[in-house]
Amino acid sequence: MTEKAPQQDIDESKLAVGKPKSWAAGLPGVLVSLKRGQEQMGAGRTVRALRVLNQREGFDCPGCAWPEPREADGEHRKLAEFCENGAKAVAEEATKRRVGREFFATHSLDELAGRTEYWLGQQGRLTEPMVLREGGTHYEPISWDDAFDLVARHLRGLASPDEAVFYTSGRTSNEAAFVYQLLVRSFGTNNLPDCSNMCHESSGAALSATTGIGKGSVSLADIHRSDLIVVVGQNPGTNHPRMLSALEEAKSRGAKVVAVNPLPEAGLMRFKNPQNVRGLVGKGSPLADEFAQIRLGGDLAFFQAIGHLLLAWEKAAPGTVLDQEFIDEATEGFAAYAERVADLDWERIDEATGLPREQIVKIARMIADSERTIYCWAMGLTQHKHAVPTIKEIANVALLRGMIGKPGAGLCPVRGHSNVQGDRTMGIWEKMPESFLSALEAEFGIPVPRKHGWDTVDSIRAMRDGRAKVFFGVGGNFAAATPDTELTERALRSCELTVQVSTKLNRSHIVHGRTALILPTLGRTERDVQASGEQVVTVEDSMSAVHTSRGRLEPASEHLLSEVAILGRLANTLLGDEHPVPWLEFVGNYDRIRDHIANVVPGCHEYNKRVRQPDGFVLPHAPRDAREFNGTRNGKANFTASELEYPVVPEGRLLLQTLRSHDQYNTTIYGLSDRYRGVEDGRRVVFVNPADLAELGVADGALVDLVSEWTDSERRAPSFRVVAYPTARGCAAAYFPEANALVALDSVADESNTPVSKSIVVRLEPAT
Ligand SMILES: Nc1nc2c(c(=O)[nH]1)N[C@H]1C(S)=C(S)[C@@H](COP(=O)(O)OP(=O)(O)OC[C@H]3O[C@@H](n4cnc5c(=O)[nH]c(N)nc54)[C@H](O)[C@@H]3O)O[C@H]1N2
Ligand SMILES: Nc1nc2c(c(=O)[nH]1)N[C@H]1C(S)=C(S)[C@@H](COP(=O)(O)OP(=O)(O)OC[C@H]3O[C@@H](n4cnc5c(=O)[nH]c(N)nc54)[C@H](O)[C@@H]3O)O[C@H]1N2
Ligand code: SF4
Ligand SMILES: [Mo]
Fold first, then answer.
1. 33 lines ligand 3 (CB under 6 A)
2. Which ligand places an atom closest to the C-alpha of 262?
3. Of 379, 425, 664, 691, which has the maximum CB count within 10 A?
4. Quick check: pTM over 0.90?
5. Domains and CATH numbers, the chain
6. Could you tell me which residue ranges the Molybdopterin oxidoreductase domain spans (predicted)?
């Protein structure tokens, strides 16, 4: 059955702004889940889908990477182990709306170019392979075999394999990711940029240097057992909603929560747990015991100040604050760090953080008194110029108190996409270590290139400069998720061929190379049947737990292929039947892929068996499991002495962050209700502190252009409605991806090359 999609696009004149909420979830969350399910899937499919969501025999939520409770840790899954935004993610994928050949015949690319991401996504699921021929105005149907031939022809025609880039978004299963990187490396390049380059790359860089492994060191059970949870630069109420249940549980056992954020996000303040009656009808539970309303980019200063205080208190009363034994035995670099934070310029700390000194002292005292501290963070830390040293500064404070490798304590970068961590484990990275590449070579007897590939930003530069000519994307929405929209779109359009393996229509299909392909694929929710029967795939959550996911719904169309089938068949077409990798066997039975994962990927021995245990298994993590830091250059956990760094904003300008509304998944816009912030029926808004508006002489509700200032030139994003909002002074916020046009391609984080999406110097100008 084909349901009708909304024909209306966003009408920003209907935008309504009300008061921000001071609590998250509760009954409205449940009602929205049901309503979106009903609209997209109908009643029966909604029940069938939600019943198996995040259950052992069902599919893993295609939303975020938050983990499920594990029996091995003494925890149990509930009947409804999902949140409002998980339900929306499922509704978006399991929708009954369809985008078939008739759709493409009636809508030209010129027309589609004028549509918003919301409208494109709302049209429904892609149903068959489509091609845009050179000079064409419309996509037309193409057979799968012809599509694979076309891609193979273009790839073979390149002067070097390095002229192609192969992007991945973090929804791809472990099996598809493993096959994909094997295909790309067999073809001869390490050009494997991924969404992680724009996401937690800074966390990976910082943690690899400090603890020796780029992943977080805590489990869900640790969160429940900690006595202090510091949540920095993260909005869990929207982006990891079930984390609120975990915080609530920790609090019920006496834990305290500190939130550090320029915005008083509803989900950090109070939580009404929809899984119990009290949460549905009562007042809910308060979450943050302390809310530090920090300035954008002030976190490095904040944690240096905390380190300074801890050291000062230790000096005043030796043996009371530091975990000296741990520092002596397991770490290096303490002296240089201690010296760096010994004399602190408090005026600069004030300027960087905008926080009252008493509050910094109070939080430092909580950290000094806590026996089991967990630090959680997300994009509010990773997308700054000084993101990597900022995260290292958190590690410093954790190391001072020995808060790693013991129950209830640790470092917890909270991942975004549901399998972004697994994709990396499987080899999706432009600079995988030698150990992985040589294991791959030995396993398959193929030559594997060693030269590092391009990450996301470098791939855009390469396309811009004509050094890359083919773009291939497995999932994601490269055109919209990346910075510097105008430049990136030009770069994509200059390609000879762009290929998108996708479930839903998005901007990256409209911004195309001279020839373009849309290869529609099965989603996580759908049954995947191959020659050997029904398949399962595996995924890894933010806490390194690996388990199966089994799609249960009927596929959106009989013409869809799974990601594994698309990649395996393409590899077979490109590399031929004689190639040592048994590509078609992989497609026929995913166990065969897992047999090789077991031999190549560290920690995955007996993979087929262990993923099938109830709740799967947890990948090894030396700092967490044994307080060992054998992954660092010196085998120790490393303190880092960093310069004090923070963004400085010229007179009359604001520092803008780009963030997610409550009703989107990255570039997928579910709806137009940013309920917690009080914004309905529109998205082009900019949140500014009322005192800043008064100083700038801009009225609440005014229509402005956002103009960003970067060394090379200015960039303009037109027509945003000003919303007076209680954000930190000098700081503004607008939604991603509408504001991506303002981020200069060269504005990247040191070391991680992540686009700086959270501190953009802007001025407001009356709308043109
Ligand atoms: N429903 C839903 N869930 C999602 C996503 C989604 O789009 N929708 N996206 C997924 C993905 S890929 C990711 S990576 C995660 C993202 O999860 P988040 O990181 O929570 O996402 P953002 O909306 O970017 O929010 C950044 C938060 O950090 C704060 N912040 C910004 N700058 C600073 C700063 O300098 N210092 C401090 N202390 N705080 C700051 C912002 O005010 C905001 O609260 O969510 C994942 N889950
Ligand atoms: N300004 C600014 N820019 C940002 C950010 C920010 O905070 N501010 N955040 C960054 C972050 S954290 C991230 S992770 C990136 C996200 O970047 P991406 O991962 O590239 O973008 P998404 O919007 O998550 O991708 C959505 C598309 O994925 C496809 N899709 C969905 N499910 C599947 C599936 O199962 N298989 C396949 N093959 N395709 C599927 C659909 O076609 C959908 O349109 O954006 C980054 N960009
Ligand atoms: S918290 Fe994340 S993974 Fe869990 S149900 Fe919600 S969106 Fe899905
Ligand atoms: Mo992300």
1. no
2. 1
3. 379
4. yes
5. 12-93 (no CATH), 98-199+419-617 (3.40.50.740), 205-414 (3.40.228.10), 654-766 (2.40.40.20)
6. 125-501
